[in-house]
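Entry for the shared binder. Reason: the reviewer on the internal report wants the predicted structure included alongside the sequence.
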Amino acid sequence: IIEQGYSYILGNQSSVAFFLLFSILVKIISIDGLIPVRAMSLTLNLAAIYGTCYYALALAQKLHPGKYARLHKLLIVLGILTFPASFFYVNFYADALLVFFVTSAVYYAFDKNYILAFALAGLASATKFTGIAAVLTCLFIVAVQEKKYNLLKFAGYAALGASGLILYMMYLGANFKNPLSYIQAQQAWGRNSSFFAISLVNELRTVVDDLQNSTVSKSFEFARILNVVVAAGALILGVIAVRKRQFWLLILILVSIGVPLLSGSFGSIMRYALVPLPALLAYFVPMITPSKKNTIIFTGVVCVSFIIEVILYLYFIKGSVFIA
């Protein structure tokens, strides 16, 4: 995209499936390719993930004032970096940038700096379609925090948050006469429409059948099992969030993970889960009681997660598309 621009052919795999912002930023900081593009994309992603860790820690402190220990800070940062799909942060993808915009937008929404929150949400929606998770989550936070709010101002926040997606659709309409071509392009990349809960049950049945019949490779099956575990874990955390009346977390989970299935595949669940991960860690980790026992337990969890991340990355660089 950086070197050749966008292309779109109906029914074929097309680059319009990938949103504008990441490519634009890489092109700018690489001085239009004068500096190696891959090196600059890595630099951008590393800066974004540093920012994500910063805002995740700040969000945890805001959500749990006075209940925030050194163990919590360490677990939040390690959780972000060692999640099984976190290797996408150091690849030529926009995930790190998206997660940064979503996490920082949620933080500023809780900080009641709404203009900045929705400006960041707008950048998120210009990075990937799942950036709308930031828009809807921040709108809910505003509605809860502001008992009396101006409907016109609320609509303005929504428009600012969705501005990235709207501008991209206008670009596609002007250049390819189809503002929704990015959705059709997703389908051409092998993405199938499905409903989250039904998809989870069907995927679990398929995994069990494949294990019994040994119809696929062990590496493929390993990734599929992890996708089911992550999806089930997301549903469980969503239920817990509801019980604790943290509906903003439920919205973030459902939009980040559930909505992409409308134009995505179940095989990308772990990658979708990167979006709500920092906010989930910021809310749940400070609930852990700092103790020697818990330190040992969660250090073990982080180590296992990192080992899984390394294994998945090795599968990925060998061409496994089920975790892409």
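Summary line for the report: The chain has a mean pLDDT of 84.
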